[in-house]
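Two folds, back to back.
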Amino acid sequence: MKFFKNKFLGIATLVVLFLVIFYSVIAALGQTLVFGNLLGVVATPFRYGFRALGNAFGGFADYVTEFRSMKEENEELAERVRELEQKVAHMQVLEGENKWLRGYLGVKENLVEFESVDASVIGREANSYMTLYTLNKGSLHGIEVDMTVVTENGIVGRVESVGVNFCQVSAITENASSVGAVCARSGARGIVEGSLGLREHGKCAMNYIDEFADVQIGDVILSSGGGIYPHGFVIGTVTEITHDPNSRSLSAILEPAVDPNTTTRVMILKKATANTETTD
């Protein structure tokens, strides 16, 4: 290592001596201008290099400044977007509340014989045979088994079981469900029933329709009353019609008016209690 250091120092000394002697000779000959030009030619690439390097550092500094400015602007825009999203979400909640209230009041006005209890869907239990939806109202609120559960759009199902502060509801698509039904357009009658096969597709069937009855695809089917379900609530819309030659009857596949999987608020219907007044 010491050898290489001494060698480097020796070479550097020789180069310096060479330049001094070379410049002295050039000066003696009066050719210092040539030497200056030669040094200029040799130094030119270095000057361009240092200039380019300086410009690069300057441009990089400008880029960093601009980047910081853009980052701050993006952060401000992102905050503004978050504020707008929160406002939109709040407006959607209010719109949903207003829509629900209008539907609730509309249903309530048409139910003279029933009291309606507002309830929220708070849970869902599913197995191979039945799906039950849990509501946040129970016996404390006067809820009983077999009470009808509806929305402003139509029938959801019936109360299957009741707890103190909750109840469970089965939809009309369940296998054990049965609803007396009538076609709103033609008056054709039948019974809407659930089945395991149709339940998987979120549908049910209106069976025991007279084979000569006027039922068409697109017809709206209503509850006919006379059972646990009150008259006049929408059950669903006919999507398919089949004829059974053995029973000489028609069956209509229905798309239910209410999808319980996407429903968050419902109304439980219970018989209205008559208020009696006594006078002396």
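---
second:
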Amino acid sequence: MRSKAPLALMEQVIMILVFALASVLCLRVFLWSDQQSRSNEARDQAVIYAESAAETLKACGGDYEQAAASLGGFWDGTRWTLSYDSHRVTVRSEDSGHALLGQALVTVTDAGGSPLFTLQVCWQEDAPSGQKEGGHE
């Protein structure tokens, strides 16, 4: 009569291989989810930076120099740039096509220069002196 030990041993080896395969798949999923989590965290931080710059610019009525003095960074005449740990925020003036509507584009990039988030911001500008609310003198 033959022993059943080799069959039991083969069954054990197969079970170990199945568990090893399952653990490798679980590890890959955990690594992928960690990478996604870090990416989402960086994007969420970029959204906060963009919103902060946009709200500061709106509160200053589109005065980039005042916004730069308030939040930080520097205004070089064409763009307002702020630098954070691993993010760079750039605010560029845009033409809105309307006389009393200011518009800018806020872009947040990572340390490598890849865009993370873009936000378009608009604000109501003050009427020039001597001009009434309705646009008539």
